[in-house]
Each structure stands twice: as C-alpha cells, then as structure tokens.
Write a structure and sequence with these properties.
- The protein is mostly beta strands and 59 residues long.
- 10% of the residues lie in helices and 31% in strands.
- The chain has a 3-stranded antiparallel beta sheet with strand order 2-1-3.
- Strand 1 and strand 2 form a beta hairpin.
- The longest helix has 6 residues.
- The protein is elongated and about 45 Å long.
- The chain binds zinc ion.
Length: 59
C-alpha cells in the first residue's frame, strides 16, 4: 500500500459556545463534530467538564 490516510484531517469541526460545569466559564471551542466525548477541556480551571451550551438547553 504505502499510503497513509489521515482521517482526522477530513473530520469536520464546529465552533461551539461551551459552558464549564465546574467553574461556569463560558468559552468558545473548536472541536471535531460527531465525537462521543460529552465533556471538553475548560481553559478556566483545566477540568474536562465543559459542555456545549446547546446541550444544556436540551436538558
Ligand atoms: Zn472550568
């Protein structure tokens, strides 16, 4: 084969407004869509407890 496909390069990304459940920081984060990870790293407290604000509205 000799050919390597970097699938990560083709995954779509989205910019979401995130809210940290730990410290309440609201921040913008660009991340890959379709990820199963429900939590994202927070720049305010270094915890991985940020969720998209739209997901909060669905609850
Ligand atoms: Zn935080």
């Amino acid at each position: 084969m000799g050919k390597v496909l970097y699938l990560d390069d083709f995954r779509p990304t989205v910019t979401d407004s995130m809210r940290c459940l730990f410290c309440g920081t609201v921040h913008i984060l660009r991340h890959v869509t379709g990820t199963r990870t429900p939590y994202f790293p927070c720049p305010g407290c270094d915890e991985t407890t940020s969720v998209p604000e739209w997901s909060l509205e669905l609850r």
